[in-house]
Amino acid sequence: IKDALSPSEEAALEGPLPSGGEGESTVSITVVGASGDLAKKKIFPALFALFYEGCLPKHFTIFGYARSKMTDQELRNLISGTLTCRIDQRESCDDKIDKFLKNCFYHSGQYNSEADFKQLDAKLKVHEGGRLANRLFYLSIPPNIFIDVARCASRSSSPAKGWTRVIVEKPFGRDSESSAELTTGLKQFLSEEQIYRIDHYLGKELVENLSVLRFSNLVFEPLWSRQYIRNVQFLFSEDFGTEGRGGYFDNYGIIRDIMQNHLLQMLALFAMEPPVSLDAEDIRNEKVKVLRSMRALHLEDIVVGQYKSHVRGGVKYPGYTDDKTVPSNSITPTFAAAALFIDNARWDGVPFLMKAGKALHNRRTEIRVQFRHVPGNLYKRSFGTDLDQATNELVIRVQPDEAIYLKINNKIPGLGMRLDRSNLNLHYADRYSREIPDAYERLLLDAVEGERRLFIRSDELDAAWAIFTPLLKELELRKVAPELYPYGSRGPVGAHYLAAKYNVRWG
Ligand code: NDP
Ligand code: BG6
Known about the structure:
Elements: H1 7-14, E1 25-32, H2 37-52, E2 60-66, H3 72-81, H4 93-102, E3 104-108, H5 114-128, E4 132-139, H6 146-156, E5 164-168, H7 176-187, E6 195-198, H8 205-215, E7 229-237, H9 246-250, H10 253-271, H11 280-292, E8 302-308, E9 310-312, E10 315-317, E11 335-340, E12 352-357, E13 364-371, E14 393-399, E15 403-411, E16 419-427, H12 428-431, H13 439-449, E17 455-456, H14 458-477, E18 483-486, H15 494-501
Parallel strand pairs: 1-2, 1-4, 2-3, 4-5, 5-6, 7-12, 8-18
Antiparallel strand pairs: 6-17, 7-13, 8-11, 9-10, 11-12, 13-14, 14-15, 15-16
Helix pairs in contact: 1-5, 2-13, 5-6, 7-14, 10-11, 10-14, 11-14
Bound molecules: NADPH dihydro-nicotinamide-adenine-dinucleotide phosphate and 6-O-phosphono-beta-D-glucopyranose (BG6).
């Protein structure tokens, strides 16, 4: 162990550990996979933002852990080179960055070596300085090594009295069986209370706001049922392809990458019954209940697509299979549209439509709630034959340019009686001057504070996989070929037929 310590760390370990002040505690956050894309792009910037905002405790240490050889200084260079976060332009940012980096260290080791994790443990102890030690491990690594790391970290980590928590990144398996295996594997070394399964969509401001919208406004909750809602749509699109992540993506596809987690989580929060309280277990109980009331998906309620190359404005945009890390005959979907149903009293018969795709014409994530027609509408003549144009629609724009707006019918000012559709619009950038924190900031802070409300419990995960696994198996067994759509388009036409089958028009 000593070989791994710097001279000052070694001296500290040999002498008596500095005794922490009465009741003082420390938090160490170890980013496992610190050399990777997610660590650079999201985790380190989020940790810095938390530090900047004064949300990290007085005594904290950040460790990067990966196989790549790096010195502490090299890690600091890597972090400071990627701190393109929402606050990097603020005054005193440089000063704060310097202070933050002084708390950042690196340890190189294998993911399956208890000895390497013991060396990390020794280093952590030096920095913990005898205080009550709390440790958070963030597994930002490929899922096939999650269990190795859980084993090594739990067997080699001996913090003084405090808690140990482990954040696990998706994907949590590929289907019900592999997900259950992963859960069993992790639970050999960690309790459910220690496992924080992250779905970063739950940390997005407007997703967190869903419960506030529903349960603290009288005007929405009474309408939140089959009686008034015709259909609900969960839409995700990106205007770029899988560039750089083709190797990962081809093994998963859009249904596992986006629908089974991000969109389904939004759906659960949207459709669950009111929880007994805001306690994590009460909320997660309701999410499990609604997920378990959902029908499993089958081929007749899905359309899959894959983007192909397209030339626009003299620029050639690559097709999915042009990526060298993707097999040229891949049938992995980069687009899917699905119709889901919740068989309970509140939602019986209401189609919940999902659409998710890469390399489409725009980037957006939205929830669209289309309401029923007004019975006996006195003004129906003002809308001609297309009564669908007269129904209310509530749009929750999760990103970009966050907004919540309600489409209503309104009289056009003047002497005549003409109506139009206008928006009651809560546009975040106009209403709130504060910038919106990144989802990873919220979730990291919650993990440090032991708040599990926005993390996925294992029974929730089981219920989510039960909805998608039969479909994923059918797609693989029958080798269903995706409908090709041009890069930058609106996706396959099949999605419109699917919506039409349920009398729905995509928003
Ligand atoms: P990377 O592929 O960049 O891997 C992270 C680190 O893990 C690498 O720097 C590498 O470190 C190590 N590693 C990579 N492949 C292997 C391997 N086969 N065996 C052992 N170690 C390996 O992943 P990301 O940073 O992109 O993602 C981390 C996790 O987060 C993954 O589970 C991913 O699915 C998930 N995720 C990623 C997102 C993203 O935008 N990147 C978004 C959402 C989830 P070294 O070689 O130094 O040990
Ligand atoms: C990740 C997916 O979970 O979410 C990516 O693996 C996707 O494929 C990303 O691009 C989208 O996240 P965001 O926050 O940029 O919408």
